[in-house]
Design a protein that fits this description.
Strands 1-3-4-2-5-6 form a six-stranded mixed sheet, with helices on both faces. The chain is elongated, with a radius of gyration of 35 Å. The longest helix is centred in the first third of the chain and has 31 residues, at about 50-80. It has helices at about 50-80, 105-115, 135-145, 165-170, 210-220, 230-245, 250-265, 280-290, 300-310, 310-320; strands at about 90-100, 125-130, 150-155, 185-190, 200, 210. It has ten helices and six strands.
Amino acid sequence: MPMYKVRPFQGGPDSAVLAQHLPACMYRVRSVHHDSQGGAPVASAPQDEVDPSLQALEARQEEILKRLYELKAAVDGLSKMIQTPDADFDATNIIQADEHASLTASAADLDNLLGKDYGALKDIVINANPSLPPLSLLVLHSLLCERYKILSAVHTHSSVKYVPEHLLKCFGEQARKQSRHEYQLAFTLIWKDVLKPQMKFSIQTMCPIEGEGNIARFLFSLLGQKHNAVTATLIDSWVDTATFQLKEGSNKERAAVLRSMNTALGKTSWLVGSELTVADVVTWCALQQTESTSGVPANVQKWLKSCENLAPFQSALKLLK
């Protein structure tokens, strides 16, 4: 039994409201396309005219965005050092040098090699001990400066009490400064009390690379040389030989390496093939660091002179004096 009855609102013979009496819209609005007397349509304002105040606002916005872009690039570059414990260097010993080189490579090349990093300058940070300067990294820095426009900087870590003046100026004297976004690559060297050179490129996506030979492989790859599997294996073999036998091996091991070098250099002008590779850079630096350049075989002596005729090797030699 229903609780109560309700009379039908519509449809029955006794319906109080008929369907045709219901409204067709909620409310009516006067047309804005006609004047108040219902005459011709009102002419609309010209669409091509732009308010001068709007143009000024757009120009101001573009300027702000440009400044924000430069600020973001600077902050992202600093964050690569600030986000790592290796960044607590002594800010009083900072020498920043601008390398002026003709550009033979575009930013797209670095994007292919290192990946895109929108709005930030790609920054390579290397920690090295001033008691054993990584000559190969300094040679490769000079080679990279011939290909890219590089922002170079030298810092002193708080763990190091003294750094010779020539090491503080290993990237040259301080030159005129430019905006950070005008460079293609940043190369930061921190003199620090470490057992082996360390390199950090991407704080978020990679762990540190340790060892002078391994860092040299990475830096030389930025020059864009391509090798087949056999050639790449030979290059890696010479880099390992220079690192573990020339620098850390006994006198007997060094003599064996020099004989192997003499044989290889009797067939080609460089250790691997007819052009300079990272094997030549690392091996030459190992011979210089161990003072093993005197009394070497004839082919090795000729190869040493070929290396020293190149400007990047000459700059590294100055650090040994």
